[in-house]
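I'll show an entry:

:::
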Amino acid sequence: MSARKASIRRFLPVAIAGTLITGVPAVTIAQTNPGFSFIWGGDGPGRKQQLNYVLQYGTPGHRNDRHRYKLGRQSVAMDSITVAFPDYFDGRFSAKNVTLRESAKGSNIFNFKKGKDIPLATVEYDEDNRVLELVPESPVPAGTRSEVVISNMKNPRSGGTYFINARITSPGDVPLSKYIGTWVVSIFRN
């Protein structure tokens, strides 16, 4: 056998494998989760005001999802949490599917371990004003990593970027509301 035929026989499997790997398009496209954000001013939140979130199933075209809005560690105890959706957000959910959860240890935005549920006294969703209010049975201690989990959320019909604001109140004689940040949620629809 000539040297030329031997080199073709060695090279052919590599060429076929390379074509298969690079020539096959990606079958799935994941939903957008927080990544890089470019801040250039305007009305949007600054870098330190952006909160992390996870769309757990994250499949475009799949209408139902689980949204996990991370609150992070707060320097004060939390007596209540208010989540305000923008007026153009047409996603739907029920207050009975909302939980407050202490994040699992070593938790980051890609960790899907279930943390410990924090018992809630009330969960109210004002659909007209698009405001969700959670009141724990006892104040959540300062320094506790927590997240608001909305299961069985029907994602908005049209894709887009949604600025969802978070406020907390701390226990005391005069409950003062404190803005803690914004989740910049991007939802892709195909």
In short: The chain has one domain: 47-187. Residues 42 and 177 are 24 Å apart (CA to CA). The first helix runs from residue 3 to 23.
